[in-house]
């Protein structure tokens, strides 16, 4: 398995993804639907990401949880155009990157995945992948099905998504189905990246699921480039068109349906 990205590299990738997203927002119809986030438009996508960046900055700065409703976001109004939304996104991402560079990654702070045992490193990693996946959403809204992503970022995004999945059960009804029903006890999913070193075994149990970086025969197996595995895991475009899968396709559909986080 590829080594996790270090903090400095993660922040550099975050800046690149944030810049790419801001560029897309500057040139895409703000009213365009985001097909991978049903009910969202490009302006709602921009609002969400810019808000998350400012919320993350407030938490890292405070070292504890912060109510996002308490923040003065300076969000553009409904009549704002592309350039205003793009500038707002850029400003928030720039401030966040500067803050993340200034903190100790190992210092503890609240996170929704680990409560009071979270770290700044968790937020650094989370903001890269929050931004990268939503940049993909903006690409899809602009009609670009052939989006690209650095394979190192794609592998780390898959790993981070799976690592945080159980912790999202509190706010995701679908994930609650994965961890609480025992519906698929004993079944497993194997993911294998073919262009970089990345492999995951998801073992379903009666009460939850366990994830390891191991090789084995799953009830269903999915093989493909890291970019395309990321599309499958995060439900961005019809990623199954670009991967090979073997075994129980119904299990793969069930997992994708319930593990979607928006």
Nearest-angstrom radius of gyration?
Answer: 18 Å
Mean pLDDT: 92
H/E element order: HHHHHHEEEEHEH
What assembly state would you assign to the polypeptide chains in this entry? single chain
**Overall domain count:** 2
Please describe what this structure looks like:
The chain is of the alpha+beta class. A 5-stranded mixed sheet has the order 3-2-1-4-5. The mean pLDDT is 92.
Keywords:
262 residues; alpha+beta; Four Helix Bundle (Hemerythrin (Met), subunit A); Nonspecific Lipid-transfer Protein, Chain A; 2 domains; five-stranded mixed β-sheet; 8 helices
SSE order and pairing:
Blueprint lengths: L6 H21 L14 H21 L19 H21 L17 H22 L9 H15 L7 H8 L7 E6 L5 E6 L4 E4 L7 E5 L1 H9 L9 E4 L1 H11 L3
Parallel strand pairs: 1-4
Antiparallel strand pairs: 1-2, 2-3, 4-5
Helix pairs in contact: 1-3, 1-4, 2-3, 2-4, 4-5, 5-7, 6-8
Short description:
This protein has 262 residues and is α+β, with helices and mostly antiparallel strands. The protein folds into 2 domains: 7-147, Four Helix Bundle (Hemerythrin (Met), subunit A), CATH 1.20.120.450; 170-259, Nonspecific Lipid-transfer Protein, Chain A (2-Layer Sandwich), CATH 3.30.1050.10. Helices cover 49% and strands 10% of the residues.
